[in-house]
Amino acid sequence: MPTNRPVRVRFAPSPTGELHVGNIRTALFDWAYARHTGGTFIFRIEDTDTERVTDEYIQKAIDTLKWLGMDWDEGPEVGGPNGPYLQSQRLDIYAEWAAKFLAQGDAYHCYCSAEELEAVREAQRKANVAPGYNGHCRSLTPEQVTGYVADGRKPVVRMRMPDGETIFTDLIRGEVKFDHNFVPDFVLVRADGSPLYTLAVAVDDVLMQVTHVLRGEDLLSSTPRQIRVYQAMGVKDDEYPLFAHLPFVMGQDNAKLSKRNGETSISWYREAGYLPEAICNYLALLGWSPGEDRENVTMKELAELFTVERVHSSPARFDMKKLEAINGDKIRALTPEEFFTWSLPFLVNGGVHSGGEGDVALTKAALPIIQERITKLSEIPALLNFLFVKDFAVEAESLAKISDDDSKKILGLAHDRLADLGEWSHAKIEEVLRAALIEELGLKPRIAFGAVRIAVTGSHISPPLFESMELLGKEKSLERIASVR
RNA sequence: GGCCCCGUCGUCUAGCGGCCUAGGACUCUGGCUUCUCAAGCCAGCUACGAGGGUUCGAAUCCCUUCGGGGCUACCA
Is residue A230 part of a domain? Predict the structure, then answer.
């Protein structure tokens, strides 16, 4: 076990779509472990499946990691001594190793067609035996090979799985054992010469001197194959990387999280106004916990606290409600300046204002009164729109609530008293309104202020009324009250 | 079907043989506070899948069983 080597961890997604929540959780643990140990974090793109991986998704994966605050030491954009970090640019390396395996007799050419293999599997299913390659081409005679070649068959390269078993210690699950009777000979290179995941991961992990493989649980059963490649490469067994198979992130319906059972793409969360630190904090809690009833951690703290020993072996359900709660906590913890920086794009993109000097000043003044009332940044436009809107109008539903005579009376009095007010501050506004509506008219605050709130903000839900009126200004406030009195 | 992994409140988890009549967080319910909405505070609901062992003593160890999931590709 490479315990005395400096830690090198890699996150190696196959961008066949946008990185989803599960991928991100894996990346986060990889990153946190590398940072915790002072090791190296490698970002590698596994794009051997050219049918499904696209440049667009690769770029998105890069952007996503950056946005979330996970920096890498080797990989796309930053390079490194073990590059290239796109498997599609390492094809010659895989070809070399495949040739070596062939020469050593660890691997062999297999001429079986897809149909033939399917027929074998079908028969195995019927006979109720373990499915897998039957070893048909393991020891072909030169004549047989000539025959296949003459038929125009193109061979794949298949790894020979010797009898016996593979035992390894998973850092999370303990000792795991696979009998080779259930690990059939597997394909390393397609008939067209392109490498398969099984070849590429193993070769790259060895060449990039990866010491710890933290990856999804779905890859657990492919580990014996990976170890087989190490052996063929001549890696000593005490130099294999250590494996840690992370539990799944599940959707509401108990199946692996996917588009069908929840929002999985990070861009969705980004647009909805989730903070990267909230996403990472929440995801860190899925399958890991710092203990001692601790839940709130920053990225920095995560790096300090994260250990593989505290990672769970059981899968976790994704819960949007909890994410929202954490997001709200993180938003409240923002400094005014940070909160402004995060908010501005939502205001501008939401069409509330264009980000001009005056808009910015008013925004900065208004943000403090809403910071503790939101759980997502996307809620900001609706809350502050009344301050900026050009052609103000009370929403129909709310308008009905202030169309009765009692409301007219409230608004009329409020308008008159406010018109006489000299110092337009929220404290003074409240003082005047309380004197007039609560004491003089004897109304309940929620009734009296409710009417004014609708008149001024256009909605029965708004930031605190008096602060809102101060921000809106005397002229506009009176104008709005007058228009519905 | 076969192989492998997993199993504490609705959810995320603490727990690693006695501190557990099982703790925290989110959700939900009720209350307080209150100009709406939040925030904050208080209270409540609800869990060791089941059955056997081992032990003075088990959520913690062992076995069985049931349940969930993954893999079983010239996907990763």
Answer: no
